[in-house]
Design goal:
77% helix
């Protein structure tokens, strides 16, 4: 079904809005590096938090979750649910430390915490690694997802047949984006995101994020409502799943894996015991650090991170999962023998992630289709604009200004930032052509940075870590990931992750203990600026050391209690929607009371500000 006029008008209104925001903030963004990349550290907590949520609400996420539910059931979402442990750790331990550091990028903190040539090498290497490797892989799967979405809605062969025919004549066939129309959609949307992000800097990114999140969230909820109604309601959805999959339905609907003898249980254990702290953003680095450092002060940084965590895991999860379950009913995993298959069904059978956009076209009326398409475009742009800005911040702040031209003026640095946004996007588009499965890209990406998770946590709480510790973790994990993915492609992801983490952790601690610690002078400078928790014996007297450790244990207690609330609420919502409604309501009521206490504690300072 082609888009109706009202659908195109909704999409056009959104496009005009993003362009206007970029033009409006162009002058402010041009004032200097801090203005372009962290908005002069002026954002309140609610803007910081919602911007984080919008960034993680990419066009790839609902597609990937649809594929996860088809392959592993609801419990497959522990792949990303487990990261809630890391995000809660950022709330109670690290958010205020990032804000106190007053850095522009997380790579910059390297030379605050460490010293000498090794620190300079680590900063430069991490800037390149994050800007080009990590960032462009992330952008690649996000762009790949919006291409799959565009393929369902934007029919350029009908709208612009001459252009489509011309592109078909030279379009390469050995890349993942086989259709030139899909490629054209990707180029148009990427160029639009580049335009307003390069003009207005982080201000235009965050302001558009607010609208993009509202659109994406409303769109996801409306779509879930229509999808569930299409199969007769929630109870009917459960009944049809048991009818279609009598032997698998329990596993599909299970909150945790039920196959005790299979790899699903081992994967679940790895997610909740290893992956959440092993991934490279375990301390809230990357674009999270950029947002945190954009906050007005440490209290706004902490509250914004808590808002993100609650919204990311508790508000957004179930609309996506419900659509994934509906897709299993509308497009069964195994079609009936001898039945004629529609082109849409054939597409879903070959790519379960495509079920999400296909269902939009089948289930929604004109107007709502436009809203959903605009919301998915908004979700795409809310992620891609962040990664364009964030990736270029490394190239300018940590490479150009640090090593190539330290004397560059603020005006020159802003110009370099705008040029760097173009470079980052071009590389990401090249990466996109090699990505087929979004979830496979997620797994490779997580393992690639697994050697940085532990050192990123320890550098905030333990004085003994040095630059060579981080460099060893980074290089060893990257090499292990390359070896395992090339020579053992069929090895399960959980085993690949475990091997990578074990090797990188052993090497990291060995190098740490065999090399010299950071000088007391540098540690004291870092300690007085950031005011960290933990074990800082050489630069803290016995009384201060005891207080630091006590505050760390208090923060960890808040972290543990909040983790129980987070996953308890997720389970309660699952029961409320798809299981025992009374049990689910009781659990949600109890966890809501707990969250009120946590939010009041953080809002009043609580265990967070007591360390100041």
């Amino acid at each position: 079904m082609p888009l109706a006029l009202v659908d195109w008008l909704i999409i056009a209104a959104y496009v005009i809005f993003t362009i206007a925001v970029g033009l409006y903030y162009r002058k402010q963004a041009s004032q200097g590096l801090a203005s372009f990349f962290v908005g002069d550290r002026s954002f309140p907590w609610w803007m910081v938090g919602i911007s984080m949520v919008a960034t993680t609400f990419a066009a790839d996420t609902p597609l990937a979750i649809t594929g996860i539910v088809a392959r592993d059931g609801i419990s497959g979402n522990w792949f990303w649910w487990s990261l809630g442990l890391a995000h809660l750790g950022v709330v109670f331990v690290v958010a205020r430390l990032w804000r106190n550091s007053r850095v522009i990028t997380d790579a910059e903190v390297v030379e605050l915490r460490y010293e000498g040539t090794s620190a300079a090498v680590l900063r430069g290497f991490k800037a390149f690694f994050f800007a080009i490797v990590i960032n462009c892989i992330t952008m690649g799967w996000v762009i790949r997802a919006v291409g799959k979405i565009a393929h369902s809605f934007l029919r350029w062969d009908e709208a612009l047949p001459a252009l489509h025919a011309w592109m078909s004549g030279w379009w390469p066939r050995n890349i993942s984006i086989a259709d030139p129309g899909e490629g054209l959609s990707i180029l148009i949307m990427s160029a639009l995101a580049l335009f307003y992000a390069s003009l207005g800097g982080i201000r235009s990114v965050i302001i558009t994020d607010l609208v993009q999140f509202a659109m994406a969230m409303v769109g996801a909820i409306i779509f879930a409502w229509f999808a569930v109604d299409h199969v007769g309601g929630l109870d009917s959805l459960v009944t049809q799943l048991y009818t279609l999959y009598p032997e698998r339905a329990d596993g599909i609907l299970a909150f945790v894996p039920t196959d005790l003898a299979g790899g699903a249980l081992f994967g679940f254990i790895m997610f909740v015991t290893v992956q959440w702290w092993a991934q490279h953003n375990s301390d809230g680095g990357g674009y999270f650090a950029q947002r945190i450092c954009s906050a007005r002060d440490e209290h706004h940084a902490t509250k914004g991170t808590l808002l993100f965590t609650l919204t990311h895991y508790l508000v957004r999860t179930w609309p996506w999962i419900l659509v994934g379950l509906v897709a299993l009913v509308v497009f069964p995993l195994e079609p009936g023998a001898g039945s004629a298959l529609s082109p849409e069904y054939e597409r879903v059978l070959s790519d379960r992630e495509a079920a999400y956009p296909v269902l939009i076209m089948q289930l929604l009326p004109p107007g709502l289709v436009g809203l959903l398409v605009a919301s998915l475009i908004a979700a795409f742009m809310s992620t891609i604009d962040t990664h364009i800005n964030w990736g270029s911040s490394y190239l300018v702040n940590d490479v150009y200004a640090r090593f190539l031209k330290p004397s560059a003026s603020e005006r020159e640095l802003v110009l370099a930032g705008r040029l760097a946004t173009v470079l980052v996007l071009v590389i990401a588009l090249a990466v996109t052509t090699r990505i087929d499965s979004i979830k496979d890209a997620w797994e490779f990406f997580t393992a690639l940075g697994a050697g940085l998770g532990l050192p990123h946590i320890l550098r905030w709480v333990w004085w003994r870590l040095n630059a060579l510790s981080e460099l060893t973790g980074l290089v060893s994990a990257a090499l292990m990931t390359a070896v395992l993915w090339v020579f053992f492609p069929d090895l399960d992801y959980s085993w690949k992750l475990l091997c990578t983490v074990l090797v990188s952790t052993v090497l990291m601690f060995t190098v740490t203990l065999l090399t010299k610690p950071v000088s007391t002078e540098r540690l004291r400078t870092f300690y007085e600026l950031v005011r960290p928790y933990g074990f800082w014996g050489p630069v803290a007297d016995s009384a201060a050391s005891a207080r630091n450790q006590q505050r760390l244990w208090r923060a960890l207690a808040m972290w543990g209690g909040s983790a129980v609330l987070l996953f308890g609420t997720l389970y309660g919502l699952k029961e409320l929607l798809l299981g025992s409604h009374g049990l689910g309501a009781a659990i949600c009521f109890g966890t809501t009371v707990g969250w009120v206490l946590v939010i009041r504690s953080v809002g009043a300072g609580g265990s967070v500000s007591s360390a100041s």
